[in-house]
Amino acid sequence: MFICPRIEIDINKVKHNTKVLVDLCKKHHIDIAGVTKVFCAIPKVANTMVEGGVKYLADSRIENLVKLAELNIPKLLLRLPMISQVHEVVKYADISLNSELSTIEELSKEAIKLNKVHEIILMVDLGDLREGVWVDDVNSIVKEILKLKGIKLKGIGTNLTCYGGVLPNKENLGQLAGIADEIKNEFNIELDIISGGNSSSLYIIEKNEIPDKINNLRLGESIVLGRETAYGNSIENTYQDAFKLAAEIIELKVKPSIPIGEIGMDAFGNKPTFEDKGNRKRAILAVGRQDVNPDNLIPINEKIEIIGASSDHLIIDVTDSEKEYKVGDEIKFNLEYGALLQLTTSEYIHKQIINSN
């Protein structure tokens, strides 16, 4: 009997999605850094990405890169390093994204201590207003970076969509490519990586509008959920259900659709509202808001409606379902990105690797 609640991870589907995206990007001479953060860098899943052809593994948390230490592939730290973690960054990450000269200086000192060369990608803010130096400051910072021992300027990159929602396009990514040319001309160096963002950049690949000099993308959601993140569209010939949640029914009863009594605040400080649908057949599942936001769950049985959730209970309406459920049965859900991130982070959710045919 399988343990519930659990995330089912179909590694064959993950590998298929990875290969599809690797092949798509290869046509444009673009390498992929497979992002492992959304599944907390489970080594077997990360290795599946490697088998699918990614050139790097990337994660925002150094703790996750530690899990991947045994995999023989370059590791990239996505979140800007904390000075308090420079030892771990140099030890476990081959490359890191950076925007602060003071942090790069500390990485240099640590790299010298460890007799290593730590590679960095200088992040440039092209308008999304998350991490990155301003365009006008790039050359002055590059000049200082090139003076440091133990540090190699591997490339430049940008992040778009994640905070400000700014879409990548041929203009802003063209600007990034132009900055790479300026660095080459000013300092007589060739950058290995020009990283044009994340899964939101895939749509301009499909439109054949990505600038030629962009040679790296950092892909997570597109691999694990088969979806580009500029418009949320499914990617052709990929799976959207490589990760599923299974939760067990712990109560199944017919109850009114409106609570009886004066309505106050729920467990999260909100005053809920309800629609009167009469008596409905309701199931309670053993998973709750401590594990996942129910708004990011998609019942595979389309006749099921999610009603709400408390910390440890998910309440669903199964009245219209053609399948007759009983206590102890499992209900399965497809997942939005946020749900997958929360569920894999929760220690209360079992992670099960499966192999589809």
UniProtKB/TrEMBL annotation:
GO terms for cellular component: cytosol. Residues 9-223 form the Alanine racemase N-terminal domain. SUPFAM superfamilies: PLP-binding barrel. It holds the Pfam family Ala_racemase_N. One of its GO terms (molecular function) is pyridoxal phosphate binding. Its cofactor is pyridoxal 5'-phosphate. CDD domains: PLPDE_III_AR_like_1 (cd06815). The keyword Isomerase applies. Keywords: Isomerase, Pyridoxal phosphate. This is Ornithine racemase. It comes from Maledivibacter halophilus.
